[in-house]
């Protein structure tokens, strides 16, 4: 979620990634807090975008947009705000919908119809800490071979 000052400029970034207490959730919260501090200090949002954009972890597709990581998603949300600000579009409506890019499963019906037989779950393997994939209803680790079916 991105909040704006009275002039429509981004002022604060809030981000939440599933369960609190996980390393990934803590890193995302740190990115959001530091981005907020930079925005409140008057740093140009495009500089924040330049620093965060392209950081890669487990990439996902979100509505035709490649989201390379949680920091990349924050950069994409800020970037869309900047684009909409320059176009004179309704900034708050458009950014509210893009602030969750790649961080949560899509609720888009069109996306749900796509083949999701081999997608990153975001969960980490309990044996090797690699990322688990959803494959045929099971969680599989491509790094060590861990497999759990429910």
Explain this structure to me?
The chain has 150 residues and is an alpha+beta fold. It has two domains: 2-98, no CATH class; 116-149, no CATH class. It is 37% helix and 21% strand. It is built from five helices and eight strands; from the N terminus they run E-E-H-H-E-E-H-H-H-E-E-E-E. The chain has helices spanning 23-40, 45-52, 70-87, 91-98, 109-112; strands spanning 2-4, 10-13, 60-62, 65-67, 118-124, 131-135, 138-140, 147-149. The protein has a four-stranded antiparallel beta sheet, with no helix packed on it. Strands 1-2 form a two-stranded antiparallel sheet. Helix 3 (70-87) packs antiparallel against helix 4. The protein is elongated, with a radius of gyration of 17 Å. The chain starts with a strand and ends with a strand.
Mean pLDDT: 75
Q: How many distinct domains?
A: 2
- Work out the helix count: 5
Shape: elongated
Portion of residues in helices?
Answer: 25-40%
Q: How do the strands line up in the largest sheet? A: 5-6-7-8
Low-confidence stretches: 90-118
Q: Please state the structural category.
A: alpha+beta
Helix-strand string: EEHHEEHHHEEEE
Biggest beta-sheet profile: 4 strands, antiparallel
Query: What's the total number of strands?
Result: 8
Strand content: 15-25%
Multimerization state = single chain
Report how far apart the termini are: 33 Å
What's the Cα radius of gyration?
17 Å
